[in-house]
């Protein structure tokens, strides 16, 4: 399992690699709510909606592959999750 810290400017780490069956915890360490959305149809599991300040959301990945996502309010802020 891994934590990806999110805020208004970046995802940390920007690329996360985990084993199939593990989870990613998205933790909002920013100063405003943040909405994460998938970059493509294959990544729809990442349409997790808004994470309030100080809150987090977990996603468990059952299928291997590469998943891409972005900050809805700042689409140039992107991240990648690789499931092995």
Structure description:
The protein is mainly β and 84 residues long. The protein has strands at 2-6, 11-12, 15-18, 23-28, 34-38, 49-51, 56-60, 65-71, 74-83. A five-stranded mixed beta sheet has the order 3-9-8-5-6, with no helix packed on it. A hairpin with a 4-residue loop joins strand 1 and strand 2 (11-12). The chain is globular and about 35 Å long. The model has no long low-confidence stretch (mean pLDDT 96).
> What string, H for helix and E for strand, traces the elements in order?
EEEEEEEEE
Could you describe the largest sheet, including whether it forms a barrel? Answer: 5 strands, mixed
Please count the helical segments. Answer: 0
List the uncertain runs: none
Radius of gyration: 11 Å
Task: Estimate percent helicity.
Answer: under 10%
Number of strands: 9
Task: State the shape.
Answer: globular
Distance between the termini: 13 Å
Major sheet: order of its strands?
3-9-8-5-6
**Secondary-structure class:** mainly beta
Let me know the average pLDDT: 96
Strand content: over 45%
């Amino acid at each position: 399992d891994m934590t990806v810290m999110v805020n208004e400017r970046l995802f940390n780490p920007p690329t996360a690699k985990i084993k199939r069956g593990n989870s990613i915890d998205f933790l909002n360490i920013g100063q405003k709510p943040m909405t994460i959305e998938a970059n493509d149809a294959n990544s729809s599991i990442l349409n997790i909606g808004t994470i309030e300040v100080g809150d987090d959301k977990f996603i468990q990945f059952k299928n291997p592959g590469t998943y891409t996502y972005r900050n809805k309010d700042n689409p140039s802020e992107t991240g990648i999750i690789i499931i092995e």
